[in-house]
Amino acid sequence: MKTFVKTLGAAALLTGLATSGATAADADLVKGFWLTGDKGQVVEIKACDEGSSRLCGDVVWSPAGTPDETLVLLGLKPSRANLSKGHFWNKGKVIDLESGKKRGGSIELLEDGTLKVASCKRNLCNNQVWERPSAEMAELPEHIRLASR
Length: 149
Description:
The protein is an alpha+beta fold and 149 residues long.
């Protein structure tokens, strides 16, 4: 679990996460800034390209300073398997940028507004819950704090 937290927090890449029942409004619910589970980084989730329905994410803040927008999420799409859940994206990859190892991944927007991020190898998954950063977190850059209000 510690390795997973470090992988997602420090430098991970989620590739191709998807749901076909989700709408643009659903994607808007996951766009924006997220504080990783270990509270070590802030990831910004946004459209991969202008007009794209796929979502990408970059690490935009860490305690050691902004890490040159390290890519951590790539190609998130809506998921067919969980149409009743609505806010679920799967069929992605988590790539540890330090080791280059790839694992299956998924994300789910939970009812409490947090984001469950899973990294799976075969049927064994490690989960992490990301939350929106607080406007009171003085160590964050002003643009992130303002967006958190």
